[in-house]
Amino acid sequence: QVQLVESGGGLVQPGGSLRLSCAASGFTFSSYRMSWYRQAPGKERELVASISSTGGITDYADSAKGRFTISRDNAKNTVYLQMNSLKPADTAVYYCSVVTWGSSRSWGQGTQVTVSA
């Protein structure tokens, strides 16, 4: 019943910016910590950023720190990832994710981000 739908990916030049969105449904969005993961070709999926249920606490991978900002709008059941100063190494499929109580981790379908000149 959990549904996560990412959008906002695309092709961007190095140094550019993108904002990803994740529309959530099927659970009480405001009660759960939300996360963004990414997976590059041939690599394991990795945690990029997470945000607490009220938005008061955020955490970032070292690779994202200072460049990416995770935020949420609980009134819209949406979590965002603002990505600035993008590098080719940021190229990956980006996934929105949540672990609801008593459930395994849920994933969106992913959105492709390609950073290339």
Topology overview:
Layout: E1 3-7, E2 10-12, E3 18-25, E4 34-39, E5 46-51, E6 58-60, E7 68-73, E8 78-83, E9 92-99, E10 105-107, E11 111-115
Parallel strand pairs: 2-11
Antiparallel strand pairs: 1-3, 3-8, 4-5, 4-9, 5-6, 7-8, 9-10, 9-11
Walk me through this protein's architecture.
The protein has 117 residues and is mainly beta. Helices cover 0% and strands 50% of the residues. It contains no helices and 11 strands. Strands 2, 4, 5, 6, 9, 10 and 11 form a 7-stranded mixed sheet that branches. It has a 4-stranded antiparallel sheet with strand order 1-3-8-7, with no helix packed on it. Strand 5 (46-51) and strand 6 (58-60) form a beta hairpin. It starts with a strand and ends with a strand.
Summarize the structure.
This protein has 117 residues and is mostly beta strands. It is built from no helices and 11 strands.
Q: Give the N-terminus to C-terminus distance in angstroms.
A: 40 Å
| Chain-averaged pLDDT | 97
Determine the oligomeric state from the structure: single chain
Structural class: mainly beta
> Main β-sheet: number of strands, strand sense, barrel status?
7 strands, mixed
Radius of gyration: 13 Å
Proportion in β-strands: over 45%
N-to-C SSE string, H for helix and E for strand:
EEEEEEEEEEE
| Tally of strands | 11
Helix content: under 10%
**Unreliable residue runs:** none
Number of helices: 0
Q: Categorize the overall geometry.
A: globular
